[in-house]
Known about the structure:
This protein has 5 helices and 11 strands. By secondary structure, it is α+β, with helices and mostly antiparallel strands.
Amino acid sequence: MVSINDVRETVLAxxxxxxxxxxxxxxxNLYAKQAQLDVFNGxxxxxxxxxxxxxxxxxxSDFANLAESTREAIxxxxxxxxxxxxxxxxxxxxxxxxxxxxxxxxxxxxxxPKVVDVEKTSRSSALRLSNSSLTAPTxxxxxxxxxxxxxxxxxxxxxxxxxxxxxxRYPIDPIWSYVTLTNGEPMYNAGSSVDFEVAEDEESMxxxxxxxxxxxSIREQE
Length: 222
């Protein structure tokens, strides 16, 4: 976790030193949200890159170590949640996904004493598989596909409960909260503020990205 107050103080100190002007709390929170998303998306991109290199046997153990290190940074964003049934018909059961999902890792079904992985497929493939008696999904070998919106379709429709998702969520938006003093100056309110969720060694990256976004708004990119 990175202290949002530490980052804001650094950003304001650099702006004041170079006479770049004042960044309001609302503007800072907007830039902070986008900066954290940039860092978070960087985690996911790097992890996918390292895993691809590892799978292609292009790197020996180096990319495996880098992939594992990046994976550790992502671990704090992994959640497990039971899914709520929306509706069911003769073809599919429809479940809501969590509102904050970024990437689905596992959809699972607790079928009695066994936990079964629900295999991901495209909607067209799901229709094709369902139309064949040889490949039609069963409770032992279920499938799912993501539709538009925050829902998935699970086949067979006999599955109507005990479905869960392990997923990577979006980071919580950072917020620098304050109370207004009598002279109009904002004073940091730690009780209602939200720190950055990324790793502590990303603090300088957050400062750079916030300054970059603030610079674009005041036409001082440098």
